[in-house]
Amino acid sequence: MGAIVIVKPKRGLFHKRIGYAYVASMVVLNITAFQIYNLFGRFGPFHALAIISLFSLMAGIAPALLRQRVKNWMHWHYYFMNWSVVGLYAAFWAELLTRTLPMGQFWPVVMIATGITTGIGSYFIRKQATYLLPPAN
């Protein structure tokens, strides 16, 4: 759903509906992440990343819901929601590669997948921001 929101035109009923569905899906995903303890047997780094994911999600939706009260709300909404999607993709690539590559090097694969994904995401977020966001006051 994150990709759909990114590539489709912003604003309007479709954007709102798919955005709310994305937020609901991510909240459920992150809550279920707190139930997984197989990897470390206790609170681990992926639980911390779930907290960061929830923070970016809430920090992205709050300005849109409170747009009359938040200065430059579109700026905050755009950046936090896009970073939420980038985090989701980073987790996807890290999970996919650690399960499919025959390396057996868990942490290096996670770090490389995350680094490449966030680097590419950062480039596109900054590039699109120049076209989508109004100039700062």
Automatic annotation (TrEMBL):
Domain of life where this protein originates: Bacteria
Bilayer-crossing regions: 20-40, 46-66, 78-94, 106-125
Keywords: Membrane, Transmembrane, Transmembrane helix
Listed InterPro entries: DUF2306_membrane (IPR018750)
Name the UniProt record assigns to this protein: DUF2306 domain-containing protein
